[in-house]
Write a structure and sequence with these properties.
With about 500 residues, the protein is α+β, with helices and mostly antiparallel strands. Helix content is about 45%, strand content about 25%. The longest helix is centred in the middle third of the chain and has 31 residues.
Amino acid sequence: MTTEPAPGAVPEQRLHPLSWLFVLVAQLRQFIVPLLALVVFGQRDDQALWPLVGVGVLALVSVWRYFTYRYRVDRDSIVIRSGLLNRHLREVPFARIHNVALHQSLLHRMFDVAEVRLESAGGMKPEAQMQVLKLADAMALEALVRRRGAVRTTDGAPASPADEGDEPGTILLQLPAREVVRLGLVSNRGLLVLAGGFAAVSQFNPRLLGTIFEGWGEWAFGFADAHQFDTSAYVMAGASMVVAVILLLRLFSILLALLGYFGFRLEEHGRRLTVERGLLTRLRSSVPRRRIQAWTLEEGLVHRLLRRRSLHVDTAVVAASGDGQPRGLRELAPIATPGACDALVQHLLPHVAWPPAEWRPLHPRAWWRLAWPGALLSLLATGALCWRFGGWGLLALAWLPWSMFVARRHALNAGYACAGELLASRAGWWSRYWRFAELDKLQALQWRQSPVDRLFGMATLSLDTAGATPLAPPLRLHYLPAGEARALFDRLGTELARRKMRW
């Protein structure tokens, strides 16, 4: 049952007059496949108008939604009313809104409008999705959420103006175009997009990919036979082809990085962080600092060559919605120097010491624990190859010392730190990462010891926070001495039991 606003209350507002157009475009993207099927397979004259009928129905639904959608900004919440036959009334408290996301495609920017999504913790769908508002109104709504959604102090007093986010934004990080190009060099987005494209095409025509490779192979070998290339020429041509493919993938990754991260800017508004990025499509996401649950520093091999790192965070908002649209704030520094990343962590976590002064090592025999899977695989492969090829199969044993060496390097670089308000772990050799969280953000502890761990006298601690995503490595302390792991488990359990979790 809906109720009319009381006299003197804030009146309800409509969306932008062109919102029906953007709803129609979104619906056409969802129904484009069946509409195209009607166009392609509808050969008879009496079926030719069905696609137009479908578009007309979607247009009527879009206009209907515009005239039946209202929202009202109250003191502590946003009230949204929609529907005519089936009516819906939704009240979203400002304190529940963890993230405000503004999305502007090229069409949005042409009409100076934006789509607004109000996110809460853990929800798979936005609490509210407004398609669309005038850009000035969307920015004003974001500022309103910052002010009225601010936390109160521990004694119940209202938050200060700095907490409410009324002060002008401070730029914490801004990426020039050359840094975005470096981001494209270190990322594999080009390869991932191409692989996803091939997978999608293969769903419609499973033979298409094979046909392309067969045609390319016939052309390449026919060209080589016509020019009578020798073996060295074949090797040079193959190596040149591999290099060309790698360069094309890197160029594609750079293009995707420029499209997604051009103009990247991280701002601080009181206790709220805002990220804005994008060349054609502009994305703007805002989240309170207190919603950050865990932090991840990553440093791949190309990162190290360029002397760069990446800083990611887990928030209480799900990273992506079911429609594939990005949600939440994950990247504080897509790419930056190690010093800039450390300075950013120190600024946002002033009560903790980063980087830790002392890292605790793993169990002295941790490298044996890391090496045995590779050693076992090497021995099995050697046996199988010797059975098939005789003495030549012994060459597979060359993998055994390499796996031992890699395991030892991983064990020497891994460690953990637990001091004050911070728990951190590090791992990796060629590609390294540092994963850390405040003790107040930990929600669950798990002490685990497999039969192999018991044999080596070690154990693993797994820790969980809200908002952890598969994109980030887990917060785990691998292969600690069993007694040390048990003592740390008991200590953290006692510490967390007497603390109030900061959500």
